[in-house]
Design brief:
Shape of chain B: globular
Strand content of chain B: over 45%
Number of helices of chain A: 0
Oligomer: heterodimer
Helix content of chain A: under 10%
Order of helices and strands of chain A: EEEEEEEEEEE
Largest sheet of chain A: 7 strands, mixed
């Protein structure tokens, strides 16, 4: 089954404790992206990647890092989480050739205390 | 920077046709217009996509005028299960695609019995 998976689905952590949210897709998609969703603000793009070793900032990249060492994986790293990073995070992937249809993962709900 | 604007919310009754319009004044010339549906605590799900004129699939129709400054998602005969948030999505580029996406805050559709 074609899908995007994220882990963990739920995470409660404390300020400053480094964490990684994994994202993996099995559709051989070139394009992958991370979004955060907050009440009243919709979905905002954090980082995206056009292909392996090619990443770029979205609208809200501060406090986040990403890497794209393999085509299928695109982890989101929070080196020093803060309470304002409490949010619902979605990973998405799509083929890069022209169209925008993105396939989204189930989401990771992160709480930073 | 291309920005999308949609009504914040809409109510409808079961069996009615619902039209949701999105304005995207600065859409890139080679960008497609894509609509997504999102249920609470789930990732957005692709509904339909188009470049110009009219596109129809099994769940919706998409109308795009010649100037491409807006698009209208049409949901025929809605049911209670169509209650969700609907987003139009465009690339943030004005003349050229950037692959940085803007979702906006979406339209919250509530279908009443």
């Amino acid at each position: 089954e074609a899908q995007v998976t994220q882990n963990p689905r739920y995470l409660i952590t404390v300020t400053g404790k480094k964490l990684t949210v994994t994202c993996s897709q099995n559709m051989n998609h070139e394009y992958m992206s991370w979004y955060r969703q907050d009440p009243g603000l919709g979905l905002r793009q954090i980082y995206y990647s056009m292909n392996v070793e090619v990443t770029d900032k979205g609208d809200v990249p501060e406090g986040y890092k990403v890497s794209r060492k393999e085509k299928r994986n695109f982890p989101l790293i929070l080196e020093s989480p803060s309470p304002n990073q409490t949010s619902l995070y979605f990973c998405a992937s799509s083929s890069a050739g022209g169209r925008n249809e993105q396939f989204f993962g189930p989401g990771t709900r992160l709480t930073v205390l | 920077l291309a920005k999308t604007t949609q009504p914040i919310s809409m109510d409808s009754y079961e069996g009615q046709e619902v039209n949701i319009t999105c304005s995207h004044n600065n859409i890139a010339t080679n960008d497609y217009i894509t609509w997504y549906q999102q249920f609470p605590s789930q990732g957005p799900r692709f509904i339909i996509q188009g470049y110009k004129t009219k596109v129809t699939n099994e769940v919706a129709s998409l109308f795009i005028p010649a100037d491409r400054k807006s698009s209208t998602l049409s949901l025929p005969r809605v049911s209670l299960s169509d209650t969700a948030v609907y987003y139009c999505l465009g690339d943030s580029g004005v003349e050229v695609r950037t692959y940085k996406y803007i979702f906006g805050t979406g339209t919250r559709l509530k279908v009443l019995a």
